[in-house]
Amino acid sequence: ASCGVDVQIWDPQRSDPVHTLTWGSESVSCVRFNPAERQLIASTASDRSVVLHDLRSATALRKLVMQKRSNRVCWNPMEAFNFVVANEDHNLYTFDMRRMESALCVHQDHVSAVLDVDFSPTGREFVTGSYDRTVRIFPYNAGHSREVYHGKRMQRIWSVLFSGDSKWVLSASDDFNIRLWKARASEGVKPRLPREQKQHEYQEKLKERFKDTAEVRRIARHRHLPKAVLKAARLKGVIKASKRRKEDNVRRHSKPGAVPHVAERKKGIVKVLT
Fold it and tell me: pTM score, two decimals?
């Protein structure tokens, strides 16, 4: 499949497209096949939309319009109905294609536009690249990243990719470099001896047992961030708290029900067309 003004489906043996799919958008920036259901594709367009197409009938199924433009879309390889969208509002949204009126999860941590996303072959996590010059790994059902990678010379991240064995992450940035990262930063590269494997399993059991202890939780969550990203994250937190306080004040001085509460999972969605 290729994208431009329309989404075009090609046969390698033919010089003309098999299908041409469109739904009123100026240009399409990304198109992805569903790895579990090959007849379904998802695309993102410049009109802030995410469109689902069915190749069996060569028609569009649903169109999701968001508050800001989506840069990339990626299907979960293990859950055929779910996909994640990388958005310009610094967040990623996981949707179920059957119920797109609300996101399943909002993934927050980036402080600038998210430019690319790719799922692990296990379907349990995905990697993201952002304009804020960081690479993050998110669990598929968690709102915050478990790992963050950055470099002193690394610039904006335009493309990220998981390896086939889900042990490595590749990133391509504006400084003309492709970097290779470990998916688990604390794990070694060489094979473990039997006694080392037993010790590793024992340590993992200890972490799991005492994960709710304040000190263990603090150590597990701590990640070093560049100064610019840390300052932007703090400023973003102040702005969000200010908006929340303003909404509470308006709601307190308005007629009951005039200013409804809107869930975070629905704030980024404008409408869903069928």
Answer: 0.87
